[in-house]
Amino acid sequence: MNRIVGVTTSNRVKNNRVDQGELNQLLKELLRNDASQRGWVPYSGLDTLKQGAYYFMGYNPRTDPANRPLLETTNNAHDWSAYTRQCWRCRQEPCEHMDAAGRLNQREPHQNRVIELAGLLGRRPECIFSANAIFIESPTARDLQNAEGLWDKCWQGHQKFLALVRPKWIICLGNGEEHGSFQLMRQQAEEPEPTVSNPCHADRPLTTARANCFVHTSILAKRPCRKM
After folding, report:
1. Is 181 part of any domain?
2. Which domain range does residue 167 map to?
3. Is residue 225 part of a domain?
4. What's the first-to-final CA gap in the chain, in angstroms?
5. Which of 32, 78, 105, 180 is deepest in the core (most CB within 10 A)?
6. Residue 100 belongs to a domain with what CATH number?
């Protein structure tokens, strides 16, 4: 297993939390015109952008009715997860696939697998920061246009997120080397380590803003987690 490279942050992150306005401004700066494309980020509430042991990363959102222009997807602040509270079949919520509390009672197979994986780690999905490597949707991973360019932009966002979460493990969801977050993160781990700055105290270098290692889901789960 490989150690994750250090992550550089800017002065944009001035404390150890990020609100919706700050996240939207970050997306505008990094993605520019692509910020108007449909997709989703993050797959967990903004309350998970704090120090935690795990960081879930898929590849990119599959096209479905739940996706929105990216700047409309950042308003889930507390105790929320796309794996437990977002219907991937319906455009409007609440819907017939949810209970009175807004939790799904009919889920997609990939949602069930992520919930199971979180349980193996002794966590609820709502407590783990989750995001796709690339925030923009496509029907399949192979259909994603300009994936390399989009990853370059989205990776800068992940650097900010990683500096806040500071996970011990980055868990890559999906199977296979091609078109997967595991491949993208391994490429980053093989690059030279950049200078690391402290998002909370600009005058204090941050030398531990890295995950110790990252792992493919097939190592942790009872069965491999296929990307839907």
Report:
1. yes
2. 20-220
3. no
4. 25
5. 180
6. 3.40.470
For 19, other C-beta atoms within 10 Å of its C-beta total 12
Q: What is the full DSSP assignment across 114-163?
A: HHHHHHHTT--GGGSEEEESS-B-BSSGGG-TTHHHHHHHHHHHHHHHHH
pLDDT tens track for 99-109: 988 889 999 99
Q: Which range among 127-141, 166-180, 207-221 has the greatest average pLDDT?
A: 127-141
Dihedral-angle region of residue 102 (phi above 0 means left; psi in -120 to 50 means alpha; beta otherwise) = left
**Average pLDDT estimate for 158-183:** 87
CB-count exposure of residue 77 (10 Å: 0-12, 13-18, 19+) = exposed
Record the tokens describing residue 189, joined without a space.
């781990």
- Is residue 14 situated within a structural domain? no
The total number of structural domains in the chain stands at 1
pLDDT at 22 over 80: yes
